[in-house]
Amino acid sequence: MNIENSEIPLGEPHEARAAFKLRSCGQCDFHGATADNVCPKCDEPTLFDPETVGALGLVMGVLGALLCVFMVAVIVKARESFAQAETYRAASKAAAKIKQQAPADPSILYLLLGLVLMVGVAIMVNGFMDYYYQRRNLKMTIFVILTIKGVFALFGIAMALTGGA
User: Fold this and answer.
1) Among residues of the chain, what percentage have pLDDT more than 90?
2) Residue 46 and residue 34: Cα distance in Å, rounded?
3) Scanning 28, 100, 108, 115, which has its CA 20 to 30 A from the CA of 76?
């Protein structure tokens, strides 16, 4: 919606026209020009201008990227630890003690770490989309998160049916 073409009475002075700003609601999907700080659709005081939404989206995208980098580092370190435990287990005479300290099948751990990694990807994508479009996109966020949950649920079912092989 263009601010210049908003529904301001023709007799209003330029100051009244300047009070109308393009805003997005943080609770619902309202996006339009209004002079109020309260959303006309959901009556909540959660209206943001495009610059604020873009800045918050950039912060969310950077935090999502940091979460992804951190989770990749944790996954790499966990893989090294499991490989080292497997080496010790094969070389040790007292395998029963070491077997209790490290689980033999790390697939569940990798599944959980991968789930956190995918949530980080969803946060990063949503943040950069908010920054690019300068408006909140709650429907896309919900769609991305539900799609990731569905993929991991299918992967978990497949792992359970095949015995984790």
Assistant:
1) 8
2) 13
3) 100
